[in-house]
Design goal:
Cu_amine_oxidase-like_N; alpha+beta; transmembrane helix; elongated; about 45% helix; 3 domains; membrane; Copper Amine Oxidase, Chain A, domain 1; Nuclear Transport Factor 2, Chain: A; 22 strands; five-stranded antiparallel sheet
Length: about 600
């Protein structure tokens, strides 16, 4: 999972770097007339940084917890004790279940294929990166060994005119062009061709300019980025431009204070170093190069011109704008491809459980990896314990303290099958799950509440306070804000919405809020028409408080095909002083009239003394 996430983030930075490369190349005909080659040399550093640093920005998001109440449509069930009875799957609509299963299988297959494909690509990328790094290091190691074997350390007091840093100087017979190599211990390689004082001076000016600008470090960094983004053609173009413009900008820096005769001497020195053995050596600062590039360098030297201070300032500002814009775009893209939160799962002792398959939130429920949690919690240690997968059906056999249990569940269906071991699993009951199991990236995920039931509630496992043990969670946004309470509230609201698909449940929830005098809560169970008609300042239907005593539902209400449902309730109540009730009256009976909404929930539409 970590490799896959790293690869996804890398693709975003690679895309951002490619886009910036395209912009710089597109406007190059303009910028080369306005800005100096030093600007063109260092602007590629911005591209390298963008491609290597996965910067992310927290874009303001609408809280998923806040959205959840409008999305909740699945009925759930609170389970605190081991269930002994339940609904069988045959009670569901067979055709609907088949359609859902088929759709889920298609989605699961597509999701698994994409996940596996991404994993393969990520592995190929990682292998390619290490291969390129190994080849580079091996080549550089061979060069180092060759230099030490074929060269001798010499004294070069002329260096003191250009730097007070300690630089090792070696003279080599097999190399014709001078260069600097090494970051920690820089070494200047000089050809053993009998250099004149004037030639040596030109060489030292050139190579010490590279040294002071830390061009070797720049080239190492560029090469590392190329190895990381080996699959992206743009990075090869960028590295090539860095190598070319490194030499041109160095030349221009060296000759900036030279007169015409000194420039000619400098060019003659470069020409004198050319030979059939001249070639570019990676990760070094060679003074010579190909004839085509040398022609370009000499042309730039002859046509050199000073850059005004205004243009220098403008070039810095434009570079900053380009970099910040690209980084912002990269950060936004990275933000869109990553989770907006992290979830910590803890056991009943409050210890964090490290999971390779990340939990996630779906429909305001916290989903956790089924198999991995069973493994982490030690439920699969027994030889009699197993988890079997068969085309979307999962069969789980676990043993806890010599007590066996069997669970059966299906991807996309919200029934958890139970069967006692002595029945050979042939006959069992099923209980409704909090939400359907999901297959994501080849891993089965279930709602944390359902996992608690299978691990703790079914076995009746309790803590030292005789409370049922359970796994808990904490949800954190990317900025570190704890939003656990909001998610829990959304989950609770989801359960209520599921319960409200039964009219008697809506009535019970309303009366429970009425008993506590929570009028704002009571309004959530009523239509706007009911609120406008029956709610007053601190009372409803003439009562300040009402506590349920008895419910009477006529069986014909269940048989009706209409969307209305009437429930007769008897309550102990406190009358409002301005109501029709006698001030001493403490109980009454009335009808709660409910109406089914388009989303399947029942809301109270009115109250009546008779229907």
């Amino acid at each position: 999972m970590m490799l896959q996430e790293t690869f996804k983030a890398l693709l975003i930075t690679s895309l951002a770097g490619t886009a910036l490369t395209g912009v710089l190349t597109l406007f190059r005909p303009v910028t080369k007339k306005v800005f100096g080659y030093m600007w063109h040399y260092y602007i590629w550093l911005a591209v390298l940084c963008v491609m290597l640093l996965p910067v992310r920005f927290g874009v303001p998001q609408i809280s998923r917890a806040a959205e959840a109440p409008q999305q909740m449509q699945v009925q759930t069930m609170q389970r605190n004790e081991p269930a002994q009875t339940g609904f069988t799957p045959s009670q569901t609509n067979t055709q609907a279940a088949a359609n859902i299963a088929m759709t889920q299988r298609i989605a699961d297959y597509a999701g698994k294929t994409i996940h596996n494909g991404t994993n393969i690509l990520a592995a190929v990328w990682l292998g390619g990166m290490f291969l390129m790094l190994c080849i580079s290091m091996a080549g550089y190691a061979r060069l180092t060994v060759k230099i030490h074997k074929k060269s001798d350390i010499i004294s070069c007091p002329e260096l003191e005119r250009y730097t007070n840093k300690k630089i090792v100087v070696r003279e080599c017979e097999t190399l014709s062009s001078p260069f600097i190599m090494g970051i920690i211990r820089p070494t200047l390689i000089l050809p053993s061709i009998g250099l004149t004082p004037e030639q040596l001076d030109n060489i030292l000016r050139h190579e010490m300019t590279h040294f002071k600008r830390r061009d070797v470090l720049y080239k190492w960094f560029a090469h590392f980025v190329k190895c990381v983004h080996w699959f992206n053609p743009a990075v090869y173009y960028v590295v090539r431009q860095i190598n070319i413009e490194c030499e041109i900008s160095c030349d221009l820096s060296v000759v900036s204070q030279m007169n015409q005769d000194e420039e000619k001497s400098y060019i003659d020195t470069i020409l004198s170093l050319l030979s059939s053995k001249s070639k570019n050596i990676p990760l070094t600062t060679g003074m010579t190069g190909s004839k085509k590039i040398l022609k370009r360098r000499f042309t730039m030297i002859k046509n050199k011109k000073a850059t005004s201070k205004i243009m220098s300032v403008l070039s810095v500002l434009i570079a900053a704008v380009l970099l910040s814009t690209t980084v912002l775009a990269s950060g936004v893209l990275s933000d869109l491809t990553t989770d907006h939160y992290t979830i910590d799962i803890r056991n009943h002792r409050g210890e964090k459980i490290e999971l390779n398959n990340k939990p996630f939130i779906e429909n305001s429920e916290v989903y956790v990896p089924l198999r991995e949690l069973f493994e982490k919690m030690g439920y699969l240690n027994s030889e009699d314990s197993s988890i079997k997968w068969d085309n979307g059906t999962i069969e789980i056999s676990v043993v806890f303290e010599n007590r066996p249990a069997y669970y059966g569940l299906d991807i996309g269906k919200n029934w958890l099958r139970l069967a006692p071991p002595d029945d050979n699993y042939s006959v069992g009951v099923a209980i409704e799950m909090s939400d359907v199991p999901i297959l994501k990236g080849g891993t089965t995920y279930v709602v944390l509440n359902d996992m608690n039931y299978m691990m703790y509630s079914y076995f009746g496992i309790r803590d030292e306070n005789n409370q049922l043990c359970k796994l808990t969670y904490n949800v954190y946004e990317k900025n570190g804000t704890d939003v656990t309470a909001q998610i829990a509230a959304a989950t609770e609201a989801k359960k209520e919405n599921g319960l409200m698909k039964q009219p008697e449940s809506t009535a019970a929830l309303f009366l429970d809020a009425f008993a506590g005098g929570n009028f704002e809560k009571m309004k959530t169970y009523c239509t706007q028409s009911c609120i406008d008609t029956f709610f007053g300042d601190g009372y409803v239907f003439g009562m300040k408080r009402a506590e349920l005593v008895n419910v009477d539902i006529n069986e014909t209400e269940y048989a009706k095909s209409s969307n209305d449902f009437n429930i007769l309730v008897t309550v102990n109540m406190t009358p409002h002083e301005n109501s029709v009730f006698d001030p001493s009256q403490t109980s009454t009976s009335f009808y709660i009239c409910l109406f089914r909404q388009p989303d399947g929930r029942y809301l109270i539409n009115e109250f009546a003394t008779g229907v």
